[in-house]
Amino acid sequence: MFELKGVIPALVTPFDEELNVDYKGIDKNLEFLEKHVDALVPAGTTGEAATLSYEEHIEVVRYVKEVSKLPVIGGAGSNSTREALYLGKEVEKAGVDAAMFVTPYYNKPNPEGLYQHYKTIADELSIPIIVYNVPSRTGTNITPEVAKRLSEIDGVIAIKEASGNLKQISEIIRITADDFILLSGDDFLTLPILCLGGKGVISVAANVAPHLMKEMYERFVTGDIEGAKEVHHKLTPLFDVLFIDTNPIPVKKALELMGLAAGKPRLPLVELSEAKTEKLRSVLQSLELL
Predict the structure, then answer these.
(1) Hey, where are the domains in the chain?
(2) Catalytic positions, please?
(3) What pTM was computed for the model?
């Protein structure tokens, strides 16, 4: 199995003018990213999985796995266990190295329901599973106690933690086994999470500044904590501006400004406003990304 660590961009799904998936655009973006990052996550939140059809979702994951030499973690979540299992089996067929399943959203399962959801999926798949906790989007939080139970399921190897709660994150790391991996799901908290024992980040910002995200990570793991802090502070305006509107609206505009592939988001998401675009442009210029 590949070593799950480092800087892992949550890939944008570029669209053409008719809002169809732009596969040549995927190629262009991967060429920009691949020399700096450690793995790839297609068809997650940043990849607009919510508005991809199942066929598009599976094909995007399959295509990224086919054309990239990096490990690929296929997005495969749903609020229906049957649907999540279907997607999981399909991305497994696509040859991915692992699959990531967001916490079921809207229907708000209780702790036992969360456990049974992930256990049902893990029992049916042979590839490693990453749990994705993002309560701001799902309405459900994976507590440290539930995370510990999930970590004991065969095949569940990691959690992407985007609760924004450092105390919770610290507690998950403290009470789970040493081989259970916690990845940051929040760019701004990546450095603090690394300090607590996290192993890397599934990142929005890495679509835009992969070299700087990798520099921060490498400085940390080589013991240059002051250097990592400097890069963190340098990147903070980017972390902020990439969430000036709903993700992935700002990151798609950033890629467009940089001459990379993005296209408009699909409805109900809309393009970034002109005023916010100017703020984004200013930050990109300050980091010499334009």
Answers:
(1) 6-223
(2) 132, 160
(3) 0.97
